[in-house]
Write a structure and sequence with these properties.
By secondary structure, this protein is of the alpha/beta class. It is built from 25 helices and 17 strands. It has a 10-stranded mixed beta sheet, with helices on both faces. The protein has a 5-stranded parallel beta sheet with strand order 2-1-3-4-5, with helices on both faces. α18 links the parallel β9 and β10. Keywords: 4Fe-4S, Iron, Iron-sulfur, Lyase, Metal-binding, Nucleotide-binding, S-adenosyl-L-methionine, tRNA processing.
Length: 792
Amino acid sequence: MSAVCEKTDPLQGVFGGLPGAKFDDIVELWHGHRTPIIICALVVLVVIRIYIHKLEEAEPLRALPKQFEKRIEPLSANKLPSAVNSEKPVAKPNGPRRIKGGITKKPATEETKEYDKSRPIKMMVFFSSVTTKTEKIAQQYLSTLEKSVGQLSRGTERQFLKPELHDLAEIDFEDFFVSPAKTVEDAHLFYLFLIPSYNIDTINDTLLQHLEETHHDFRIDTAPLATLLGYSVFGFGDKEGWPDEADGYCFQAKELDRWMSKLTGRKRAYPVGMGDMKSDHAERFDEWSSGVQEVIAHVASSGTLGEGAPGSGDAMESDAEDVAEDDDGEVLIGEDISGDDRESSRPLDDVEDLGRMLRTSDGKGTANGKKAPLAVDFTSYGASSAKKRTPTAPVIKEMVAKNSPTYAALTKQGYSIVGSHSGVKICRWTKSALRGRGSCYKYSLYGINSHQCMETTPSLSCSNKCVFCWRHGTNPVGTTWRWVVDPPEMIFEGVKENHYKKIKMMRGVPGVRAERYAEALKIRHCALSLVGEPIFYPHINEFLAMLHAERISSFLVCNAQHPDQLAALKAVTQLYVSIDASNKDSLRKIDRPLHRDFWERFQRCLDILREKRFRHRTVFRLTLVKGFNVEDEAEGYAQLVERGLPCFVEVKGVTYCGTSTSSNAGLSMSNVPFYWEVCEFVKALEGRLKAKGLKYGIAAEHAHSCCILLASERFLVNGKWHTHIDYKRFFELLEERGADGDWTPEDYMGEPTPEWALWGNGGFDPRDDRVDRKGRKIENIVVREAPPPDSW
């Protein structure tokens, strides 16, 4: 049995060569001595590694250069260590260092060293203005600065250049607020701002948005305007509508000061001045300007704004205690913190740190019961700026709230405000037609019964601030819709109700004709041209559909500043586009648009009108303002007509409204052209159009309104002009083919234009009587030729 086992044991052959060695003995030997064997092997390996390491040459440290090593100074014999310093310092973590909030302020000597007194100094005054009041104050202030330049030069022995005045609506912000303005003289610059605050969209909003974007743009330096000598802001407000700063008094001036503080690196030279336009603005402005002049003299002589208290120049207001102590959990450069705070505020440098914090969490969601580190605004200065505000949800406001000054101003002018952004007002031509004293030019040119016309708008907000606007500059303005949106059904019912109320108020007026009063109680036409920008209303197509459903024709006027809304517009009886200038500079001067790309928008609207010319009756409305857009601009207008190819070109002289707003804008009766001047312009325009091969001719006129109509020869049939509209046929086409149906303006072209309305006949309705201010009949006399110079 044992022999068989020996033969079948495979291990015996393997270990049979070892004399006296058995497999079982080897295994037993290993189990008995494996621990010392392993330890000896490890010791041998460690000794070998140390020996090899000693033979290698020491390489310099690559992570940190030599100069960052701490230099150890020998302890002098007469200086003994104190008990305070005997404590062992707290060890700092070895991981990547955290970027600490705040900046290291330059010593005053360094700032003075960089200041080059050989360079001249230039002050730049920036202003914005809607009603031109601030513009006049800015111009007067510029004159004062120019006179004081000589005194500053003598007092500081520095060269001062002539100050510059800039309208914020006419400059490119990138030239002044991304980096300081470039001057030929390479001058030191000092910025001054005169800013009124508005609760409507103005150029102020565009500027503030630009400054905010510049501040947060990672491609731009933290303080791109830090090379300015300084800046200061004065704000104009109205305490009647906004009693204090909490309610919005001078809020845009304060906001501008905040962003300028960030962009200049805390170069606020003088506190924000604020003045009430209805009481003490002149006194407050004098105090501010005197203080600014003293600061400029100091800066010119020393090159710095001087020493400031803690928090001086910061963007946000805070107490001195807040500046010194409140760091909102952030570690300031050179500041000592306790070991516990150091541990709690240590950043998450790696994912491993997160795991370590989770392991040590006390179960309350934060490590060691401490708050997690807060995010750092790397573009803010000082501890005070670290105070965080809880973000609040944006509140959508009403465009014209009932308790707002805008509401009070518009209702005083005779408007009925419907909802929060719509309005209706009875036209003077409606009153005149009710009494048989003449109708609007639309009756002569297009056949609209003035006493059956409702003048309204679903949007009181406009994107322009035209110099000839009748609305006293009190209507809201804006570039985007940012208000509550009223439903079109409410607007439609509201404007009808208020229009009928105003018509019924006329029934007791002497001279009102009974038959016309009865007709006036049934609206047949709607002029969407009261004020503002009708296509700005988001539901304009729905509103138009409601008008058409009750067989009310629509005459919609836009200012060529909203091309997207214009392109989306559906069926409309007649579409107007106001063309107030023939070139970019004139348009900026007359319309004062809010959009910075106003000219590009204007041109896009003309292109859209060209595409719509076979679906809508399109009209260019040219408002002539003498001294602005009449002289030598016929060629420019002809080019615009060639681009848009409208069905009609309506040329009208401006009507002077006689308000203080217009006078501030530079308008007076001298800017109202005579009718013969309008006639000469239209003849010149017709000649330019024919020279370009465009088939337009003078079709009709309404001399009483200083209005003349140029029409495309598409509406010249058998030698007769057909400028009137067949309203019945328009609604039939709309019902048969829908708002997107395929039809042309010629399909609802009316009967031939009446003889009395044609060019050369004056255009006054023969059924009515023209009277003077005292109700006496007067003869219709039309002067189409320039009077001889002797008669002037």
